[in-house]
Amino acid sequence: MLIRRAELGGLRVDLRLRENRIVEIAEGLPVLPGEDVLDAAGGALLPGLKDHHLHLHALAAARASVDCGPPADADALAQALRYADRKLPPGQWLRGIGYHESVAGDIDRHWLDATVPERPLRLQHRSGRLWLLNSAALALVEQSADDPLERRGGRATGRLYDADAWLRTRIGGRRPALGEVSRWLASRGVTGLCDTSHDNDTAAWSVFAGAQQRGELLQSLRVMGSAALDAVSSTPGLQRGERKFHLHDHELPDFDELCADIRAAHAANRGVAFHCVSRVDLAFALAALQEAGVRGGDRIEHASVCPPEFLEQVGELGLIVVTQPGFIAIRGDAYLRDVEDFDRPWLYRLRGFLDRGIRLAGSSDAPYGDADPWAAMDAAVRRRTASGQSVAGMESLTPEQALALFTSPLEAPGCEVPKLEVGAVADLCLLTEPWGAARNALAEIEVLAAWREGRLISG
Ligand SMILES: [Zn+2]
Fold first, then answer.
1. pLDDT tens track for 38-66
2. Is the confidence at residue 340, as pLDDT, over 80?
3. Ligand 1 centroid to 435 CA: how many Å?
4. What is residue 392's DSSP assignment?
5. 128 C-alpha to center of ligand 1: Å?
6. How confident is the model at residue 89 (pLDDT cuts 50, 70, 90)?
7. Are residues 210 and 322 in the same domain?
8. Are residues 90 and 148 in the same domain?
9. Ligand 1 centroid to 439 CA: how many Å?
10. What spacing in Å lies between the alpha carbon of 11 and ligand 1's midpoint?
């Protein structure tokens, strides 16, 4: 394939791709017989984007669900659920996502029953860790004495914490198809993904491999998960990722066991990744890594609150931070309301990490964040909430730094971005306009085409 008139490094050039590589770059390259030609008309040619932290199956499911998150209030939520209830065939599950207490408080089965009495309904809290079930749903999940349902006075409240795998076995949830989500991500220039779900096991691995083989999943994929993935081997396009530890500060694991698990992951030639959204999570993860030792590639996911003393430790340990700047835009107003004054300067830091020489990569955490990488880059530059307030404005990045968060390799987040030169793998994202114009309105960027390893996956 010949790409004509692309902007690359400030110049307007033609590029020839053959098999999976860039084989020629020059002005005015001749078209070879039978060669496909795409006219970039001056659009910027960039490395293909990488989303270093998301949850693919949850994202696909979210696209078929009712959005239950802020800024809706209780009335608006009830209305949305009733509307969806009327549209679905009888007996089919109704699924809501993104719930937060600011919408209707600490609701339980009774609130849900009053809204959707007949149909099984489940709402997911936006943290991804809690499901709320109505009575019709509870009746279908076959309660037993040892199930993980929360109970008060012997009766299930409808709350179910950290039990996705259990719920799947109960309701026979098939994993949703990934084609639509994958095509949409490709249309935004995304050529590589890292699925960071902590419960990914060999079954999940096979599902991803199958989706790639069928051509349903267009991107390269790195798969984090449980210790079960120690047993799998990476293939081209499907990488075994880190062992993921999902800490929650109200229920931290045994420290010595955690250290043993870190050592076991390292011994299996795997890195580790820690979900850290509070000071407590981060302190605990850093202490465990200090004790068990760090392997190159070990990661902190989110690092949502990172005061200077922790940032220093992250730097000393040589950890990678994978952040979600988009949360500032979509949740920033709630942070300003709920987070203590003294923690606000340390929320979803960006520049602070870079200044300390810490490798930093960007991601969406979709479906818990907006899946559009350009929206996240825009948020990294503007650091404004939906209502326009600034959140730790000194942490803001330049558009070029924001782009770099999303272009480092899947296997080396925050490391050097591969150069687009002759001989390089053709992993590319082509914009509709030159970078000089695009950089001023990142959220509005349009992508003309994307190639993963020389193959056109969008455009
Ligand atoms: Zn996540």
1. 999 999 999 999 999 999 999 998 887 89
2. yes
3. 30
4. S
5. 8
6. confident
7. yes
8. yes
9. 27
10. 38
Amino acid 247: pLDDT = 84
Query: 123: domain CATH number?
Result: 3.10.310.70
CA of 195 to the centre of ligand 1 (A): 8
Question: Is 221 found in the same domain as 124?
Answer: no
Per-residue pLDDT, averaged over 158-167, amounts to 92
What distance in angstroms lies between residue 298's CA and the mean position of ligand 1's atoms? 16
Looking up tokens 């860039």, which residue turns up?
A: 22
**With 0-12 CB in 10 A as exposed, 13-18 as middle and 19+ as buried, what is 454?**
middle
> 220 lies in which domain range?
49-57+176-418
Average pLDDT, the chain: 95
For residue 252, the CA-to-ligand 1 centroid distance in Å is 18
Phi-psi region of 416 (alpha: psi -120 to 50; beta: other; left: phi over 0): beta
Q: How far is the CA of 40 from the centre of ligand 1 (A)?
A: 35
CA of 55 to the centre of ligand 1 (A): 6
Q: Are residues 243 and 127 part of one domain? A: no
- Between the CA of 311 and the centroid of ligand 1 the distance, in Å, is 21
Neighbours of ion ligand 1 (CB under 5 A): 365
Ligand 1 midpoint to CA 54 (Å): 6
77: Cα separation from own chain's centroid: 25
What is the Å distance from ligand 1's center to 317 Cα? 22
pLDDT digits (tens, 9 = 90+) for 93-134: 899 999 999 999 999 999 999 999 999 999 999 988 999 999
Measured in degrees and rounded to the nearest 5, phi and psi for residue 234 equal -65, 150
The reply to whether 428 falls in a domain is: no
Domain containing residue 375: CATH number: 3.20.20.140
Q: State in Å: Cα 322 to ligand 1 middle.
A: 10
- Give residue 156's Cα distance to chain centre: 32
Cβ–Cβ under 8 Å, residues 16 and 29: yes
In angstroms, the Cα distances linking 165 to 110, 181, 257 are 25, 22, 22
Tens of pLDDT, residue by residue over 252-309, are: 999 999 999 999 999 999 999 999 999 999 999 999 999 999 999 999 999 999 999 9
Q: Which residues of 284-318 are buried (b: 16+ CB within 10 A; e: fewer)?
A: bbbebbeebebbebbbbbbbbbbbeebbebbbebe
Residue 450 CA to ligand 1 center (angstroms) comes to: 25
This prediction's pTM: 0.85
Statement to judge: residues 122 and 269 lie in one domain: no
